Amino acid sequence: MISVRPAWWHLLLCGLLAGIGPLLGCSSKDILYPEDHERYKRIDSAMETLRTGYEGKDLSRLKGLMLPLDSMDRIEQEIEKDFESFEQITLGFSVERIVIEGDNVDAFVHWHGHWKRSKTDTGVRERGHGVLHWVGVQSILLKGMDGDLPFGMTARLAAAESQRPDAQQALPQRPELQKGGPRK
Asked: Which CATH code fits 34-160?
Protein backbone atom coordinates (compact mmCIF):
# COMPACT_ATOMS: atom_id res chain seq x y z
CA MET A 1 0.00 0.00 0.00
CA ILE A 2 1.32 3.46 -0.92
CA SER A 3 1.12 6.18 1.70
CA VAL A 4 0.43 9.75 0.60
CA ARG A 5 1.54 12.57 2.87
CA PRO A 6 0.07 16.05 2.81
CA ALA A 7 1.92 18.90 1.06
CA TRP A 8 2.66 20.69 4.33
CA TRP A 9 4.65 17.65 5.46
CA HIS A 10 7.00 17.98 2.48
CA LEU A 11 7.38 21.73 3.09
CA LEU A 12 8.22 21.12 6.74
CA LEU A 13 10.82 18.50 5.84
CA CYS A 14 12.44 20.79 3.24
CA GLY A 15 12.46 23.68 5.71
CA LEU A 16 14.17 21.58 8.38
CA LEU A 17 16.81 20.39 5.93
CA ALA A 18 17.41 23.95 4.71
CA GLY A 19 17.78 25.18 8.29
CA ILE A 20 20.06 22.39 9.49
CA GLY A 21 22.25 22.26 6.37
CA PRO A 22 24.23 25.46 6.99
CA LEU A 23 24.74 24.55 10.64
CA LEU A 24 26.39 21.28 9.69
CA GLY A 25 28.44 22.75 6.81
CA CYS A 26 30.84 25.33 8.32
CA SER A 27 31.03 25.47 12.07
CA SER A 28 33.80 28.08 12.23
CA LYS A 29 35.98 30.20 9.98
CA ASP A 30 39.72 30.06 10.25
CA ILE A 31 41.52 33.40 10.05
CA LEU A 32 43.76 33.29 6.98
CA TYR A 33 46.24 35.95 8.15
CA PRO A 34 46.31 35.91 11.96
CA GLU A 35 49.13 38.50 12.28
CA ASP A 36 47.23 41.01 10.13
CA HIS A 37 44.02 40.28 12.01
CA GLU A 38 45.74 40.97 15.34
CA ARG A 39 47.18 44.22 13.96
CA TYR A 40 43.73 45.38 12.82
CA LYS A 41 42.43 44.63 16.30
CA ARG A 42 45.26 46.73 17.83
CA ILE A 43 44.47 49.61 15.42
CA ASP A 44 40.79 49.41 16.35
CA SER A 45 41.68 49.35 20.04
CA ALA A 46 43.95 52.42 19.64
CA MET A 47 41.17 54.34 17.87
CA GLU A 48 38.68 53.40 20.58
CA THR A 49 41.17 54.50 23.26
CA LEU A 50 41.55 57.84 21.44
CA ARG A 51 37.78 58.30 21.35
CA THR A 52 37.11 57.28 24.96
CA GLY A 53 40.13 59.21 26.24
CA TYR A 54 38.83 62.38 24.58
CA GLU A 55 35.28 61.83 25.83
CA GLY A 56 36.54 61.06 29.32
CA LYS A 57 38.94 64.03 29.30
CA ASP A 58 41.86 61.72 30.11
CA LEU A 59 44.91 63.62 28.83
CA SER A 60 47.43 61.11 30.19
CA ARG A 61 45.66 58.31 28.31
CA LEU A 62 45.80 60.35 25.10
CA LYS A 63 49.48 61.22 25.61
CA GLY A 64 50.19 57.50 25.84
CA LEU A 65 48.85 57.10 22.29
CA MET A 66 50.85 59.94 20.71
CA LEU A 67 54.40 60.02 19.41
CA PRO A 68 56.46 62.83 20.98
CA LEU A 69 56.43 65.14 17.94
CA ASP A 70 55.99 68.93 17.71
CA SER A 71 52.81 68.54 15.64
CA MET A 72 51.35 66.23 18.27
CA ASP A 73 52.26 68.72 21.03
CA ARG A 74 50.10 71.33 19.29
CA ILE A 75 47.18 68.90 19.03
CA GLU A 76 47.69 67.98 22.68
CA GLN A 77 47.41 71.67 23.66
CA GLU A 78 44.20 72.06 21.64
CA ILE A 79 42.73 68.97 23.31
CA GLU A 80 43.66 70.39 26.73
CA LYS A 81 41.79 73.63 25.88
CA ASP A 82 38.76 71.54 24.90
CA PHE A 83 38.87 69.79 28.27
CA GLU A 84 38.95 73.17 30.05
CA SER A 85 36.17 74.69 27.92
CA PHE A 86 33.65 71.85 27.81
CA GLU A 87 32.06 70.01 30.69
CA GLN A 88 30.76 67.17 28.53
CA ILE A 89 32.11 65.77 25.26
CA THR A 90 30.52 63.00 23.21
CA LEU A 91 32.37 61.66 20.17
CA GLY A 92 31.75 58.89 17.66
CA PHE A 93 34.05 57.51 14.97
CA SER A 94 33.08 55.57 11.87
CA VAL A 95 36.03 54.07 10.00
CA GLU A 96 35.73 54.41 6.24
CA ARG A 97 38.91 52.49 5.43
CA ILE A 98 42.34 51.62 6.75
CA VAL A 99 45.43 51.70 4.53
CA ILE A 100 48.55 49.90 5.77
CA GLU A 101 51.95 50.41 4.14
CA GLY A 102 54.72 48.79 6.15
CA ASP A 103 54.70 50.32 9.64
CA ASN A 104 52.46 53.24 8.57
CA VAL A 105 48.69 53.09 9.03
CA ASP A 106 46.23 55.66 7.67
CA ALA A 107 42.71 55.44 9.10
CA PHE A 108 40.11 57.44 7.18
CA VAL A 109 37.30 58.31 9.58
CA HIS A 110 33.97 60.09 9.69
CA TRP A 111 33.15 61.56 13.08
CA HIS A 112 30.30 63.26 14.88
CA GLY A 113 30.41 64.96 18.25
CA HIS A 114 28.52 67.00 20.81
CA TRP A 115 30.28 69.53 23.07
CA LYS A 116 28.52 71.09 26.07
CA ARG A 117 29.93 73.88 28.25
CA SER A 118 27.51 73.00 31.10
CA LYS A 119 24.83 70.43 31.84
CA THR A 120 22.07 72.90 30.96
CA ASP A 121 23.79 74.07 27.76
CA THR A 122 22.31 72.75 24.50
CA GLY A 123 25.85 72.48 23.21
CA VAL A 124 27.37 72.37 19.78
CA ARG A 125 27.03 69.48 17.37
CA GLU A 126 29.63 69.05 14.65
CA ARG A 127 30.71 66.36 12.24
CA GLY A 128 33.40 65.87 9.66
CA HIS A 129 36.00 63.53 8.29
CA GLY A 130 39.75 63.24 8.30
CA VAL A 131 42.73 60.92 8.43
CA LEU A 132 44.46 59.62 11.54
CA HIS A 133 48.09 58.68 10.81
CA TRP A 134 49.32 55.86 13.02
CA VAL A 135 52.62 53.99 13.10
CA GLY A 136 53.62 50.62 14.49
CA VAL A 137 52.96 46.91 14.35
CA GLN A 138 52.87 45.67 17.94
CA SER A 139 52.36 49.08 19.54
CA ILE A 140 50.15 51.49 17.56
CA LEU A 141 50.94 55.20 18.11
CA LEU A 142 49.39 58.34 16.63
CA LYS A 143 51.90 60.37 14.61
CA GLY A 144 49.66 62.90 12.87
CA MET A 145 46.25 64.02 11.66
CA ASP A 146 44.89 65.56 8.48
CA GLY A 147 41.52 66.90 7.50
CA ASP A 148 38.62 68.08 9.58
CA LEU A 149 38.97 66.27 12.91
CA PRO A 150 37.17 67.06 16.18
CA PHE A 151 40.18 67.89 18.33
CA GLY A 152 40.52 71.62 19.00
CA MET A 153 36.82 72.49 19.02
CA THR A 154 37.47 75.46 21.35
CA ALA A 155 39.70 77.15 18.76
CA ARG A 156 37.31 76.26 15.94
CA LEU A 157 34.32 77.84 17.71
CA ALA A 158 36.34 80.94 18.66
CA ALA A 159 37.36 81.42 15.02
CA ALA A 160 33.76 81.01 13.84
CA GLU A 161 32.50 83.55 16.40
CA SER A 162 35.16 86.11 15.47
CA GLN A 163 34.09 85.93 11.81
CA ARG A 164 30.40 86.38 12.66
CA PRO A 165 29.27 90.00 12.47
CA ASP A 166 27.97 91.55 15.66
CA ALA A 167 24.17 91.29 15.95
CA GLN A 168 23.78 95.08 16.33
CA GLN A 169 25.94 95.82 13.30
CA ALA A 170 23.98 93.35 11.18
CA LEU A 171 20.69 95.26 11.62
CA PRO A 172 20.23 98.36 9.50
CA GLN A 173 19.84 101.48 11.63
CA ARG A 174 16.60 102.70 10.07
CA PRO A 175 13.77 104.11 12.22
CA GLU A 176 11.07 102.06 10.50
CA LEU A 177 12.85 98.88 11.58
CA GLN A 178 13.09 99.89 15.24
CA LYS A 179 10.47 99.11 17.91
CA GLY A 180 7.01 100.47 17.28
CA GLY A 181 7.01 100.16 13.50
CA PRO A 182 7.26 103.05 11.03
CA ARG A 183 7.17 106.60 12.37
CA LYS A 184 4.90 109.21 10.89
From this structure: 3.10.450.50
